[in-house]
Specification:
Length: 1036
């Protein structure tokens, strides 16, 4: 019974008793129900924030005074004085220093995860320098293999894997880049506060950290850890699946960085820690406001430089290009007054209604009157035919800006054409204002109820025709620029023969603002689906993804409709309808990834294809209202529009008319000195091309992309079907003063700053405790992932705060903390048990000796590779596929298999496939990647010796090791020399006399049993036997 008077019941006992009730409400059941209710917590009224872990880290904690240890200055560091103080209080003394052979092996495995070579062992043992040990520590901390060793510890915290798990175990795109990022970060000793910030908001860092070797963006890679969890590919309950994914993300975040179990807050107030449901859902808002994103992490400096140079080139060149364009337009329309009326007259006079009526082009060739006109006016027959064909089509095309001109030219009365123009504007406006939205709601299985409602302003999801606010414009990368291109802005093409591709008639988001070689995406804000159809008005090509409740892994029978492809097949504006009725009520956003040139004007709900307002062009209306010549008047309007645009005037009508000139070059004249004209534009295009060549090739990596700020409601008992009405503002933990409310975006950068603020007592304490745990097999706080009330209290609280303050005050260097620890006398103790000390400190909590530790599965495997000579120490890259044995294979397994030895690569680089975990590593307690595991289970199971005895990989490495020994050149000196070398390579020492004798006798017996023809098999058997010696998998 707890001292509060409540029974303390383990989860297993709780489940057992409830199942035993078989649904009957017993007294215990009522107690348990009360415990689950908001007001029934047994610790009601307790000051949760008064727990030691919530108090600030004490700065400059002074180690206690201690008595000397014998005649030595044992307590030569602050760490030692903290440890010795506790030992002396218990009447204990520390163990003697470990032997040098033990120390070098211990250091190598702790700092690099690889065994020292015999040469390195002997060199260290023979080094009489007083700084030999310190020099060894520095060499190992500087080793490129340091990062590989310590990265594996970190990957356990973030449940690293490269596939999603579930049924088909789909790959997580570019996951391996995160692993390589962690290795590089530990090798570079990136300050831990920066490392944390990169994980929370690395995609938002203004000046990202870069890899010195590749110049790639490192900061953005940290935020990829959020998406390394398990995921299903066709969830039936897509919102419930999102809640589970977010729960895992919060659970991993809170344990890995804070050592807290925030996950409890999904369903109820934390019963023991100062974590509320509001804290949990406030944090969920940060994640809901951020999305999955494959970012181009190639050299950000080069990307920024190219972008800025392109922007400057455009700004510097625009006015000159517009002047040249205006001069070109004047030439182009110089003969419009000859072709337009002639073509109109011919079209009016072509016989109609007869089966054998000639085509316009045939009519030009055959009719003598036409031939006379062509000769008299020196017209080109092909261009005249093009004019006839254009006028014939334009008079019936409401989208053509010169439709009214064509109609008047072909004989319609001006007053009638003007009236029709104004009626078309009024009708189209009325249609836009009377859009109806269809809403289909499923009520019961396959029972759909349809309704209709009026369109409202909220149904306009994204309108890029106008300037965008900070909660409207969301892009990744540089391709779409900093906002929509405004109406009237010129779009420069890629061909000097057509220097201006078009003018933007309405504002629009464009992938070709500066260059389509830049990378990026554009996405909408997040919104609730409240209609059956979503419509996109666009030109060009793009891939579309509808992110429903942040679901990404789309495969199988459900949700395939979220992916769409857009292709307007030309320069015409198109509407694309996307059926979204299956997601009524769900929150979604839409992502567009351009395939070359892509223009997006708006995203909106609609019933059928939305109508488009077709306003009267005032310039053309004035032309039709006047009595002047139609063709000459049109030519004047076009040249005036070009000159006004060159002078800086901008409007939609002007852009519409100039686009007509650009898109109808076949109707217009080219200057006689066209080569000289285009040469004036060639300088711009050459300069642009030169800059584009500096844009680095895209390198895709998993990270986050900020969206609009979203706050989450509290879900009653964690059930997404019962949300509360009020939203919880995004903020950090309330008990730590988390009252900041982000105004725009996710707010993750503010969260990251709060995380690493010195006033946060958890981040620094938790990480130094993890370092201590990995070096001593037990943290100062044993429950390394739980610093809360249900975790263990620190054994040496002063030492914990001393190390935490040292971390913060000395640049947040993890290597510095490791250095302090391994240089201490505490770390350098012998691990030999002492009976008297063990009686007082049986669990070695006071560290009266160094613990003996079992090596992790990855280290055991790497040691096999290193000793056999098979190891490939190549770093980074994607890494080999995991070896899939026939026993592991299922009908959902991927095709093929990786090599049995992983191509000799270190274990950290071998693919981690959730549904096909490597059996040897699993047997030696490598955690299943589903949540944070800061303290691995260290089991002693039958599977471990069976793996070492029977595994084909182990046999393979034994044979390779035997070959290596035979090739060493000492085989001729006798079997004894081979035995000695084998022990040196395996254990860093010579064999004991009894070991030597047994090993030689074993080889002789095996040789006799195998016919005595070769030493290879007997030596292989000895190597295999040494792999199974306890000393091979344990470190003293």
């Amino acid at each position: 019974m707890h001292d509060t008077g409540y029974f303390v019941i383990s989860p297993d006992m709780f489940l057992h008793l409830f199942l035993g009730c078989r649904g009957r409400l017993c007294a215990l059941g009522m107690v348990c129900t009360a415990w689950l209710s908001p007001m029934g917590a047994p610790d009601s009224g307790v000051d949760k924030a008064g727990h030691w872990a919530w108090k600030p880290v004490r700065q400059n904690v002074q180690p206690p005074q201690v008595d000397p240890v014998g005649n030595s200055d044992w307590a030569n560091t602050s760490i030692d004085r903290f440890i010795l103080s506790k030992l002396q209080a218990a009447g204990l003394t520390p163990s003697v220093p470990a032997a040098r052979r033990t120390l070098i092996r211990r250091l190598h495995f702790d700092l690099t995860g690889l065994p020292p070579t015999p040469a390195k062992v002997e060199s260290f043992v023979d080094d009489g320098s007083p700084s030999a040990y310190e020099s060894l520590v520095e060499r190992l901390l500087a080793s490129p293999h340091f990062g590989e060793r310590w990265a594996q510890h970190w990957l356990d915290l973030v449940r690293f894997a490269e596939t999603r798990g579930h049924e088909s175990d789909f790959p997580i795109p570019e996951a391996y880049r995160y692993r390589n990022y962690v290795v590089r970060a530990f090798n570079a000793d990136v300050p831990y506060n920066d490392f944390v910030m990169e994980h929370i908001a690395g995609d938002l860092v203004e000046n990202p950290r870069t890899d010195p070797a590749t110049r790639r963006n490192e900061s953005a890679l940290g935020a990829g850890f959020w998406h390394l969890g398990e995921a299903t590919h066709s969830p039936v309950d897509i919102r419930g699946d999102e809640c589970d994914r977010v729960h895992n993300q919060i659970d991993v975040y809170s344990k890995a960085f804070l050592g807290l179990t925030m996950g409890c807050g999904r369903c109820h107030e934390h019963k023991f820690d100062a974590i509320t449901m509001e804290d949990y859902y406030a944090f969920a808002g940060f994640l809901q406001s951020s999305g999955f994103y494959l970012k181009d992490v190639s050299d950000p400096v080069a990307q920024d430089s190219a972008y800025n140079k392109l922007a400057k080139l455009r700004a510097d060149s625009e006015s000159g290009l517009l002047r040249e364009f205006a001069a070109l337009v004047e030439t182009k329309v110089s003969r419009l007054a000859d072709y337009l009326p002639t073509a109109a007259e011919i079209l009016r006079n072509i016989p109609k209604g007869k089966k054998d009526a000639p085509k316009p082009s045939d009519y030009i060739v055959s009719h003598p009157t036409v031939q006379e006109a062509v000769k008299a006016q020196k017209l080109q027959p092909e261009k005249l035919a093009a004019w006839i064909a254009y006028l014939d089509k334009a008079r019936g095309n409401v989208a053509d800006p010169l439709r009214s001109v064509a109609q008047v030219a072909l004989g319609q009365a001006k007053v009638d054409v003007l009236a029709a123009m104004r009626k078309l504007e009024a009708d189209s406006t009325s249609q836009v204002e009377s859009i109806k939205i269809n809403v289909t709601i499923e009520e019961g299985e396959r029972n759909y109820v349809k309704s209709e409602r009026d369109w409202t302003a909220k149904d306009m999801v994204a309108d890029y025709r106008r300037k965008q606010g900070p909660e409207e414009w969301f892009t990744g990368g540089k391709q779409f620029g900093t906002g929509p291109m405004s109406a009237g802005a010129p779009v420069f093409g890629t061909d000097s023969n057509r220097p201006i591709k078009e003018f933007s008639e309405n504002g629009a988001a464009r992938s070709d603002v500066l260059s389509t070689r830049l990378t990026g995406i554009i996405r909408t804000r997040t919104f609730a689906v409240n209609g059956d159809m979503l419509w996109y008005r666009y030109k060009g090509k793009a891939d579309v993804f509808l992110a429903v409740d942040s679901h990404r892994q789309v495969a199988g029978p459900l949700h395939g409709i979220v992916r769409q492809k857009l292709d307007s097949k030309g320069d015409e504006w198109k509407w694309h309808g996307h059926r979204v009725r299956d997601y009524i009520g769900h929150r979604v956003h839409v992502e567009f990834k351009a395939n070359g040139e892509f223009v997006l004007e708006r995203v909106q709900f609609g019933g059928s294809e939305p109508p488009v307002v077709r306003p009267v062009n005032s310039r053309l209306a004035k032309l039709l209202e006047s009595d002047g010549d139609l063709a000459n008047g049109l030519a004047k309007i076009l040249t005036t529009a070009a000159n006004n645009r060159a002078a800086g005037q901008v409007n939609r009508e002007m852009a519409q008319l100039l686009n007509w000139v650009i898109h109808h070059e076949n109707l217009l004249e080219n200057p006689a000195d066209l080569d000289q004209v285009t040469a004036k534009f060639a300088g711009y295009y050459k300069a642009k091309s030169d800059i584009e060549r500096t844009i680095p090739g895209a390198v895709w990596a998993l990270t986050l992309l900020d969206g609009n700020g979203e706050d989450e409601p509290v879900l009653t008992r964690g059930n997404h079907r019962t949300p509360s009405e009020e939203l919880v503002p995004r903020s950090f933990l309330e008990a730590l003063g988390g009252t900041d409310r982000p105004k725009h975006g996710s707010g993750r950068m503010g969260l990251a700053r709060r995380m690493v603020d010195p006033g946060n007592p958890f981040v620094s304490r938790v990480v130094v405790n993890r370092v201590w745990h990995h070096l001593f097999s037990r943290g100062i706080v044993e429950t390394v992932d739980n610093f809360g009330a249900m975790g263990k209290a620190p054994t040496h609280p002063g030492l914990l705060d001393h190390l935490a303050s040292q971390l913060m005050n000395r640049g947040w260097s993890i290597k510095d903390i490791i250095r302090q620890v391994v240089l201490s006398s505490t770390y350098r103790q012998s691990s030999k048990p002492n009976v008297a000390s063990a009686e007082v400190d049986p669990n070695n909590i006071l560290l009266h000796r160094m613990p003996i530790r079992r090596l992790e599965g990855e280290v055991i495997r790497d040691q096999l590779l290193a000793i056999s000579g098979r190891i490939d120490k190549q770093q980074f890259g994607k890494g080999p596929m995991v070896h899939i044995t026939p026993f592991m294979r299922t009908n959902r397994s991927p095709g093929g298999s990786g090599p049995m030895d992983g191509a000799g690569r270190r274990s950290i680089y071998v693919e981690v496939r959730r549904n096909h975990l490597e059996p040897m590593l699993t047997a030696f307690d490598k955690p299943t990647p589903f949540t944070t595991i800061g303290r691995r289970v260290v089991s002693n199971s039958p599977a471990q010796p069976l793996i070492m005895l029977n595994n084909e990989f182990v046999h393979q490495q034994a044979a390779l090791w035997a070959d290596r020994l035979l090739k060493s050149g000492i085989a001729s000196a006798g079997v004894g020399k081979l035995v000695s070398l084998a022990y040196q390579q395996a254990f860093g020492r010579e064999p004991e006399p009894w070991e030597y004798g047994v090993a030689v006798e074993f080889i002789e017996q095996q040789s006799s049993a195998n016919g005595g023809d070769s030493l290879r098999q007997p030596l292989t058997d000895l190597c295999h036997t040494l792999f199974n010696v306890k000393e091979f998998v344990f470190v003293n």
